[in-house]
Amino acid sequence: MENTFPKDFVFGTATAAYQIEGAVNEDGRCPSIWDTFSHTPGATFAGDTGDVATDSYHRWREDLALLNDLGVDAYRFSIAMPRIMPTPNGIPNAKGLDFYERIVDTLLEYGIKPVVTLYHWDLPQYLEDAGGWLNRVTSYALGDYAAVVAKRLGDRVDTWTTLNEPWCASYLSYGAKEQAPGLGLGPGAFPAVHHLNLAHGLMVQAVRGIVGDKSKYSVTLNMPFNRGDADACHRLDLIANRAFLDPMLRGRYPDELFAITKGICDWSFIQPGDLENAHQPIDLLGVHYYSTNRVAMSDRPQFPQETGPSTCPGASDIDWLPTDGPHTDMGWNIDPQGLYDTLMRVHDRYPEVDLVITENGMACRDQLVVNEDGTKAVHDADRIDYLERHFAAAKRALDDGVPLSGYFVWSLLDNFEWYFGYAKRFGITYVDYATQERTKKDSFLWYRDFIASRG
Ligand code: IFM
């Protein structure tokens, strides 16, 4: 595939702390909700935990060297709040800050831009014990933590991303039982939605107060793209996308969101000033894209009084239909046109912000091959095909006027895929979990050549 992206287009790859670091009991880190959840019997596939993961807390040099070989312009990684603020007393842990400083400085030595996610789901357990995202105190704690990180790293970080996928951190985590803390409260997840929006704004303010406009500010969202019945798509768009984007980018919730959640949520947790706080200028909106959904209105009554667990409270009268194949190892359909459609729609609705694809990639059933000479390889042609088609869709959107400035492949390494543990491999680098040996997959070599062929 010819690389016709502009010279200044940012090619990158991404990871997240709990998915790769391991070392959960080292250097003063406190337990997070994911430690608790993954150690709960039955909560994750095969009882897998992030205790060791890809051991990147110890192998970070090797991993950053991979990035250098890959030739990326930027690396998106997350900082673990449990390493920085391990107790409720507000005193930062120097060893945690030192660790991330080493990463940032090494990236800069390689000429790779650090793109920092401040919150990728690993909430300290002590905050959860006080109500977690259902308690607005958590939003302020995240603001304080962001300030601590900015004081240490602020002069060297290219882009600050406040939250990773607040949809998952609220609906999947508090509405359903799929992710930590797995409370299954259905509509009881709406306070978490709001407090995440508030935390986003408080984090932007905290970092900007220290760094000013030397860095860029962003948030990343998975924005489920639905095809099918227009009413169902509209409703899901309100619940899954606009519940975050409108407060963050416009300073208000859509009136229709209040209308469709009438009877299941009174939104009384919104306090005066919250929306002004949530609504802060940002430079980039991170789009995560993997697949699309197909939906229809069911014949169940509209707006039932929902009480049970739900990944999308307010939408229990909507049916998810099977999607056309092919599907990835996650069971997600492969639909590059959906990426184009997502980018066009988001830009159409929020033209004031530039877009960056902060996650896209594919889980495959990768097989490690040992060659006759003892070298190892992974021939992941499906992943290369997936990436080629999605890069082409992104380029079409760019050509059609979307201000798209970058693309981060998920993920640099195979890693702990949350509920699915180590059963799903998203990496362009294969990790043998028994030995922690890294092997560059064919997709790594393809991506390296693709980046190098730019211009
Ligand atoms: O692994 C996750 C990541 O942490 C958040 N976005 C989706 C990825 C694949 O499921």
Largest beta sheet, briefly? 8 strands, parallel, barrel
- Helical content class: 25-40%
Q: What is the mean predicted local confidence, pLDDT?
A: 96
Distance between the termini: 13 Å
- Physical arrangement of strands within the biggest beta sheet: 1-2-3-4-5-7-10-13
- H/E series: EHHHEHHEHHEHHEEHHHEEEHEEEHEEEH
Give the overall shape: globular
Given as residue ranges, the uncertain stretches (5+ residues, pLDDT < 50) are none
Cα Rg: 21 Å
What's the β-strand tally? 15
Tell me what the structure shows:
With 455 residues, the protein is α/β, with parallel strands linked by helices. It is 39% helix and 16% strand. It has 15 helices and 15 strands. The chain has helices spanning 17-20, 33-38, 56-70, 81-84, 94-110, 125-129, 137-153, 166-175, 190-211, 230-250, 255-260, 274-278, 336-349, 381-399, 442-452; strands at residues 10-14, 74-78, 113-119, 159-164, 216-222, 225-228, 284-288, 292-297, 318-321, 354-360, 369-370, 376-377, 404-410, 429-432, 437-440. Strands 1-2-3-4-5-7-10-13 form an eight-stranded parallel beta barrel, surrounded by four helices. A hairpin with a 4-residue loop joins strand 14 (429-432) and strand 15 (437-440). The longest helix has 22 residues, at 190-211. The mean pLDDT is 96. Residues 16, 19, 165, 288, 359, 410, 417, 426 line the site of 5-hydroxymethyl-3,4-dihydroxypiperidine (IFM).
